């Protein structure tokens, strides 16, 4: 019965998707080493970025009737290009798509849609796993000169080095020890003063909820804690 429902859902999505979908062209793909994380540069001539004061996401058609959410980062209005940062450390249609997509391929997508994350007045601290990297690069771009601090949890040793080689910003990479990076991310916050901060948490949903719970107990409490769950 569940399988039958899934088939119907896929067919419906396929029909709706075909009606709403726009396309982009892949300009380049860079795999980090080991190849479980991907930067996909895309030209999106018709992407509507009118709500680009908040971080946005698009639904990418990763296989017939299957869509996965990814975040445009490094948006360049003149060339209408951006990069999607795709975590492919697990097995799933989105992860498999990222491992196969090539320069010149056409991407079909729906959106963009807005998240609730935008730069805020206080000192901004970001926490999340590698699926959140594009989201935080987009937030940093929107924040301009105001530096984000925080931590992204990384599973692969090789990716820790790439993180520091590729990005010159004040967000740290911390070694992930559990499914969503809970221990490493919480540990990062321990010696930080959270007074008057705006905290963003993105990524593995149970980790995000648990982190929020822990940070709410702090005496030097942040102004806000904004959670955007990505996967579970
Ligand atoms: C608004 C929004 C924006 C997003 N932007 C991005 C983005 O820019 N980059 C990005 O990589 N992801 C992003 N995500 C998350 C991404 O859409 C999901 O992780 C998606 O489920 C991956 O699809 P999949 O087909 O590879 O795996 P699925 O079929 O969904 O899941 C297969 C299995 O893998 C596990 N899994 C899923 N994602 C991960 C992960 N990252 N790490 C470890 N295990 C995982 C699941 O728990 C499941 O057991 C975003 C999600 C949302 C809601």
UniProtKB/TrEMBL annotation:
It comes from Dyadobacter psychrotolerans. GO terms for molecular function: oxidoreductase activity. Residues 19-119 form the FAD-binding FR-type domain. InterPro entries: FAD-bd_FR_type (IPR017927), Riboflavin_synthase-like_b-brl (IPR017938), SIP_FAD-bd (IPR013113), SIP_fam (IPR039374). PROSITE patterns: FAD_FR. Gene3D superfamilies: Translation factors. This is FAD-binding FR-type domain-containing protein.
């Amino acid at each position: 019965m569940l399988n039958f429902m899934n088939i119907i859902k896929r067919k419906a999505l396929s029909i709706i998707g075909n009606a709403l979908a726009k396309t982009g062209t892949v300009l380049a793909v860079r795999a980090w080493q080991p190849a479980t994380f991907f930067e996909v540069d895309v030209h999106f001539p018709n992407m509507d970025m009118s709500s680009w004061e908040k971080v946005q996401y698009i639904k990418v058609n990763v296989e017939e009737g299957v869509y996965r959410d990814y975040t445009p980062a490094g948006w360049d209005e003149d060339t209408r290009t951006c990069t999607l940062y795709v975590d492919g450390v697990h097995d799933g249609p989105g992860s498999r798509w990222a491992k196969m997509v090539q320069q010149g391929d056409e991407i079909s997508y729906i959106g963009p849609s807005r998240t609730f994350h935008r730069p805020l007045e206080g000192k901004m601290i970001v926490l999340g796993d590698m699926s959140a990297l594009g989201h935080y690069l987009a937030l940093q771009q929107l924040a301009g000169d105001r530096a984000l601090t925080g931590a992204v949890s990384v599973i692969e040793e090789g990716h820790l080095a790439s993180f520091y080689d590729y990005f010159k910003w004040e967000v740290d990479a911390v070694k992930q020890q559990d499914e969503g990076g809970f221990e490493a991310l919480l540990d990062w916050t321990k010696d930080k003063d959270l007074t008057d901060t705006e905290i963003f948490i993105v990524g593995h949903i149970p980790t995000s909820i648990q982190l929020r719970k822990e940070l709410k107990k702090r005496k030097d409490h942040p102004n806000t804690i904004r959670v955007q769950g990505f996967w579970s």
